[in-house]
Design goal:
The complex is a heterodimer. By secondary structure, chain A is mostly beta strands. Chain A has one helix at 101-105; strands spanning 5-7, 10-13, 19-24, 31-38, 42-50, 53-57, 64-68, 74-78, 87-94, 108-109, 113-117. In chain A, strand 4 (31-38) and strand 5 (42-50) form a beta hairpin. The longest helix of chain A is centred in the C-terminal third of the chain and has 5 residues, at 101-105. The termini of chain A are far apart. Chain B contains no helices and eleven strands. Chain B starts with a strand and ends with a strand. In chain B, the strands form two sheets. In chain B, strands 2, 4, 5, 9, 10 and 11 form a six-stranded mixed sheet that branches. Chain B is mainly beta. The chains are: A mainly beta, B mainly beta. Chains A and B meet through strand 5, strand 9, helix 1 and strand 10 of A and strand 5, strand 9 and strand 10 of B.
Chain lengths: 118, 110
């Protein structure tokens, strides 16, 4: 168990709909990252939040957005869903905030949310 | 953007055999991470490497940070059926953002 919790584990929804994926990072971790894993794309970085602030954006579509709340949990919102958005969405956390640079790069992943758009 | 190339893409080996896989980049990395992903699960961190030439072990797994800082290697000794999965290399850039290789799918025949 990595300590990172994602809900729901599975989600089936129709095209055009909007969904929210939730992530609770490991206790004490300040960074949350979101990744998308499709069959033909591997693990693609979407977005990084640190202590409530957006720090980096990857290839995230404009239809997707995220936020990190004061209690450090994060939500990834996916709207106007298309068939091609079907994928595994992973959340990872890092940075225990102890000042050890090594811990800043060791990301621990949740079990993911499998999104199926029909 | 930066790309990590992993090889081989897949391996089908006999239980008990040793396994080697590698990861190369056109850019220098200061950290290399190796993850394993089981079907339907999230990637699990196996080994982290921080210095060129570093050799680090975790049980039957050994990973090395290449001297050029553009490659890394993962070896698994005496493979067992539970080693089955996809192995990913990853490296951070632009801060803490991780770039992942395409993965090496390992299959073990009992």
């Amino acid at each position: 168990d990595s300590g990172v919790t994602q809900t729901p584990k599975h989600l089936i929804t129709a095209t055009g709909q909007r969904v929210t994926l939730r992530c609770s990072p490991r206790s004490g971790d300040l960074s949350v990252y979101w990744y998308q894993q499709s069959l033909d794309q591997g693990l693609q970085f979407l977005i990084h939040y640190y202590n409530g602030e957006e720090r980096a954006k990857g290839n995230i579509l404009e239809r997707f957005s995220a936020q990190q709340f004061p209690d450090l949990h994060s939500e990834l919102n996916l709207s106007s869903l298309e068939l091609g958005d079907s994928a595994l969405y992973f959340c990872a956390s890092s940075t225990p905030g102890q000042g050890d640079y090594r811990m800043n790069t060791e990301a621990f992943f949740g079990q993911g949310t499998r999104l199926t758009v029909v | 953007g930066q790309q990590l190339n992993q090889s081989p893409q897949s391996m089908f080996i006999q239980e008990g055999e040793d396994v080697s896989m590698n990861c190369t980049s056109s850019s220098i990395f200061n950290t290399w991470l190796w993850y394993k992903q089981d079907p339907g699960e999230g990637p699990v961190l196996l080994i982290a490497l921080y210095k060129a030439g570093e050799l680090t072990s975790n049980g039957r797994l050994t990973a090395q940070f290449g001297i050029t800082r553009k490659d890394s290697f993962l070896n698994i000794s005496a493979s067992i059926p539970s080693d089955v999965g996809i192995y990913f290399c990853a490296g951070p850039h632009a801060g803490n953002m991780l770039t992942f290789g395409g993965g090496t799918r390992l299959m073990v025949k009992p």
